[in-house]
Amino acid sequence: MIIVHTGDGKGKTTAAIGLAVRAFGSGLKVLILQFIKGGQTYGELDALKLLPIEIRQCGRGFTSSGNFDEHKAAAAETLKVAREEILSGAWDMIILDEINYAVKFALITEAEMLDLLKICPPELHLVLTGRNATPELIDAADLVTEMTLVKHPFQRGVKAQRGIEF
Ligand code: ATP
Ligand code: MG
After folding, report:
1. Looking at residues 114-130, what average pLDDT do you find?
2. How far is CA 103 from its chain centroid?
3. What fold, for 2-156?
4. 14 CA to middle of ligand 2, Å?
């Protein structure tokens, strides 16, 4: 299955982590690779340490001072790791968190992302998250969910909250 979580509403990454927990509970081996994110603390990182679900932050963070070239190099490295892990046969599910952002911000090309789908063995579930999934990705996927923004506390100035956002 090629699974995509996109849209402007909250819940894309947390739904992917929910899927990872379900898959693990069903005996699948799960790897989560996070494009973009890096260096920050997230509750899920500590929680997943308790389970044999591997999660690797490969990016340079949303807010770090890193310049574009640094972000681009990190994304290229994450893409390389993604390719290797997809072909490794070691996993039943690989989650590529925020890969859509990496494409949107031109850290990787859309063709490079779509190439991951092409090399994906049929028995491997690939989950791709992030706003602005491209029409080509949506077309190529088996299961696409769009989170719709109805209301978010950010709109009335509430900052990110521990346990809800991180
Ligand atoms: P989550 O990680 O909570 O599942 P997400 O993956 O759907 O959220 P992203 O687009 O990756 O959301 O955004 C990352 C952060 O921005 C999250 O902490 C999330 O709470 C916050 N966020 C998501 N949607 C909105 C929104 N519509 N307005 C403001 N902040 C948002
Ligand atoms: Mg997310």
Report:
1. 98
2. 12
3. Rossmann fold (3.40.50)
4. 7
